[in-house]
Design brief:
The strands form seven sheets. Strands 4, 6, 9, 10 and 11 form a five-stranded mixed sheet that branches. Strands 21, 23, 26, 27 and 28 form a five-stranded mixed sheet that branches. The protein has 613 residues and is α+β, with helices and mostly antiparallel strands. The chain is built from 15 helices and 28 strands. Helix 6 crosses helix 7 (89-97). The longest helix has 15 residues, at 60-74.
Length: 613
């Protein structure tokens, strides 16, 4: 399975254990691997039809468009849809903007609520489909109110033969019809057709997607000692229940809640904050995977299990954050400027660059009801650690990466030039375990200015025996880590002396001229003076009386100052001190006879990397 889907065995194990969710873009391939249609896979059809074809790939841009269209067609606000799916409005915004791909659990809930076949949602552009004229006026097929069950209940509904699928989707809370619900029946009347359809004028779309309508009419089965609750508009309102001062019973208000989903106050963290089920710290970027935070500002929020602390209820409920074991200065919280509505509870966590490396501290959420300040509840503390190793970061979006060095067959290209043949490139980092620590992957691009290499995206590259060494070569890396995406480009020297008599007008015995700085092919410096040496590959001696050299500036502007007294060097190079960190610059030389300065022999380029040595 891992090999078929392109995952590691460990990743598959996590999917099966419910520790993580498989990407929705992989679902068609998974269904094909299991000889299932996408619809049979997601519906857990116990008797799937034979399927020998290949499910088309999912288009992330189409998923984004469809999830946006469905919400707007239903007339739901961001907050309303977020509440339905137990998400935050920010998560919905990320789905609709394409900043993040819709999760498997959210996809399952959306399919159930909007009454859609997975194949239609994944492959049809719903907005265009609705503009077509319906072929017939069949009954609308809608799932009025999804009944979402926890993992144990879901697992019971799936056969052992489909254990892989049960683990895959159990975390999503797939629709199941068990427990204390009353009998379900089909609704096909004209009144019911419009109850939950996308629009009353476009009911034909849903009728072509599902074959029947399921609605739930849930009546209370709670005991009289717990009060009664009833369904209101098909949605749970357990968060509106009020608790007694003893916290031992709850009664329904504003329509109450479904008895199959209702929770007694004992399930809440506080008897005074009905609906508050948890106080889990969350961060805008998932730095909590490794708990290491470089200096910077981080958006911190709290997952309250569906409950929200907002401006409108702050006169009743309060949310705060507590920092523990922090240094005397350099780590602090402040209000988030955009903190209105559902973002009211967000905070900015600041870690200054003055904080030492390896400082461990905790952050936890604190909540209480106004009038019960002496009875607060706390979430589980999140342990964090500052990461501020000495040295400047190469890129802002690659925090903690202090150095990158290009290796060819395990040897630094700064110490030894690349030669003709087949070679494998790699990236050496500081810290050495940076890529592993931050779950980073690398995409390579090895190129030459003369285009002789094309654009190689493999780290293994073949340089032909007639490749020129008087052109510029570089390796570009796209690093995707837990912090996001960053790019680094590193130049490297290529050495391939020309055959004898390849430049007869200049000197038939001259095969190459190579520039080094302290015997290195590349110089690392933050600016200042640099002394460069010249090495001639030739059996002929050259004099200043007959020959001269000229600077071919390449990528070095006029602010790079050259000074030399003759063709044998050394060359003094003055480098500006205000250049961007980990930017590079190169130049080459033109060697020619004084009698014919237009007939030139070009040297291999020499590069300077603006970085600490």
């Amino acid at each position: 399975m891992a090999e078929a889907l392109g995952y590691t065995i460990q990743a598959i194990s996590k999917f099966e254990a419910g520790d993580s969710q498989i990407s929705v873009l992989t679902l068609p391939e998974l269904a094909t691997t299991l000889s299932l249609s996408l619809d049979d896979l997601l519906s857990q059809n116990p008797n799937p039809l034979p399927f020998k074809g290949e499910n088309p790939k999912a288009d992330p841009s189409l998923l984004k468009e469809n999830i946006t269209f469905l919400r707007k067609s239903k007339g739901l606000s961001l907050q309303e849809e977020a509440t339905l799916f137990d998400l935050t409005p920010r998560t919905i915004i990320n789905y609709e903007s394409g900043a993040t791909l819709i999760s498997l659990s959210s996809l399952i809930l959306a399919l159930g609520y909007y009454g859609l076949k997975p194949s239609v949602f994944s492959y049809e552009k719903l907005e265009e489909k609705l503009q077509e004229k319906p072929a017939s006026s069949e009954a609308v097929a809608v799932v009025s109110t999804p009944i979402v069950l926890p993992l144990p209940a879901v697992a019971k509904t799936i056969s052992p033969a489909k254990k892989w699928i049960s683990y895959l989707f159990a975390g999503a809370g797939i629709l199941a019809l068990v427990g204390s619900t009353s009998p379900l029946w089909l609704k096909t009347s004209a009144e019911d057709k419009t109850s939950n359809s996308i629009t009353s004028d476009n009911t034909w779309l849903l009728s072509s997607i599902l074959a029947f309508t399921i609605t739930s009419n849930v009546t209370s089965s709670s005991s009289s000692s717990q009060g009664t609750s009833s369904s209101s508009n098909g949605s749970s309102s357990s968060a509106n229940a009020s608790s007694s001062s003893a916290g031992s019973s709850s009664s329904s208000q504003d329509g109450g809640s479904s008895s199959s989903l209702s929770s007694s106050s004992s399930e809440y963290l506080s008897p005074y904050i009905p609906g508050l089920k948890r106080l889990d710290i969350s961060m805008a970027k998932d730095y909590t995977k490794f708990n290491l935070l470089p200096a910077g500002t981080y958006l911190v929020g709290v997952d309250c299990g569906g409950f929200e602390f907002t401006e409108s209820n702050q006169d009743k409920y309060r949310l705060d954050y507590v920092l523990e074991d922090i240094p005397s200065s350099g780590v602090y919280l402040e209000a988030y400027e955009g903190g209105v509505g559902s973002a009211y509870g967000l905070r900015n966590l600041h870690i200054l660059g003055t904080v030492a490396n390896g400082v461990k501290f905790k952050i936890k959420a604190k909540a209480y009801a106004v009038g019960h300040e002496d009875e607060p509840v706390y979430g589980t503390p999140l342990l964090l650690e500052t990461f501020s190793e000495a040295g400047q970061d190469i890129r802002e979006n690659l925090p903690g990466l202090k150095r990158a060095e290009l290796l060819c067959d395990g040897i630094s290209t700064e110490e030894s030039p690349v030669t003709p043949g087949t070679h494998t490139f790699s990236l050496k980092t500081m810290p050495e375990d940076y890529l592993e620590r931050y779950h980073a992957s690398i995409t390579y691009q090895i190129t030459s200015y003369d285009g002789s290499l094309g654009t190689s995206t493999s780290p293994t590259v073949t340089f032909s025996s007639d490749a020129m060494d008087d052109t510029f070569y570089q390796a570009s890396f796209t690093i995707t880590s837990d912090f996001g995406l960053g790019n680094i480009s590193l130049p490297f020297a290529f050495k391939n002396p020309k055959p004898l008599y390849s430049a007869p007008l200049v000197s038939g015995l001259l095969q190459g001229i190579y520039i080094t700085a302290q015997k290195k092919c590349l110089a690392r410096t933050r600016g200042g003076s640099l002394s460069l040496d010249l090495t001639y590959v030739s059996t002929e001696e050259y004099s200043d009386e007959k020959y001269l050299i000229r600077i071919n500036r390449g990528k070095m502007g006029d602010d790079f100052i050259f000074d030399f007294s003759g063709i044998h060097g050394p060359i003094s190079l003055q480098i500006p001190s205000n250049l961007d960190y980990y930017s590079y610059y190169f130049f080459s030389l033109r060697f020619c006879q004084r009698a014919d300065p237009e007939d030139c022999f070009y040297t291999a380029p020499f590069s300077v990397l603006i970085a600490d040595d």
